[in-house]
Amino acid sequence: MLYHAGDTAVFGDMKLIATLYRPDTVMLPIGGHFTMGPREAALAARFLEPETILPIHFGTIPQLKGTPEELAALLGTSVRVVRWSPGETLS
């Protein structure tokens, strides 16, 4: 199951989403200016307990400085963080 966080910040009910739906893949914003940054996304990942994270809302304008590598470093090896580009597919 896929969970797309959109433009939200981390929130406690992400634990409820994990309990009810157990998403294995989550899309989390990591840009850090208008949305969560890597630190907040790492907490969201701990709440949601996914196997894979597809980072979104980063690197498109100078203010969105968070990177997938920063997120991966905060999570260690517990979750797969995918650096993906438009048009790519996930397998």
Secondary-structure map with pairings?
Blueprint: E1 2-4, H1 14-21, E2 25-29, H2 38-48, E3 52-56, H3 68-75, E4 80-81
Parallel strand pairs: 1-2, 2-3, 3-4
Helix pairs in contact: 2-3
Overview of the molecule:
The protein has 91 residues and is an alpha/beta fold. It has helices spanning 14-21, 38-48, 68-75; strands at 2-4, 25-29, 52-56, 80-81. The protein has a four-stranded parallel beta sheet. Helix 2 (38-48) packs across helix 3. The model has no long low-confidence stretch (mean pLDDT 95).
Percent helix among the residues? 25-40%
Shape: globular
Into which percentage range does the β-strand content fall? 15-25%
The strand order across the widest sheet is 1-2-3-4
Rg over alpha carbons: 12 Å
Q: Major sheet, described briefly?
A: 4 strands, parallel
Q: Report the count of strand segments.
A: 4
Helical segment tally?
3
Structural class: alpha/beta
Distance linking N and C termini? 14 Å
Low-confidence runs (pLDDT<50, min 5 residues)?
A: none
The chain-level mean pLDDT equals 95
> SSE string, helix = H, strand = E?
EHEHEHE
Keywords for this structure?
globular; 3 helices; alpha/beta; four-stranded parallel sheet
In short:
This protein is α/β, with parallel strands linked by helices and 91 residues long. It contains three helices and four strands, in the order βαβαβαβ.
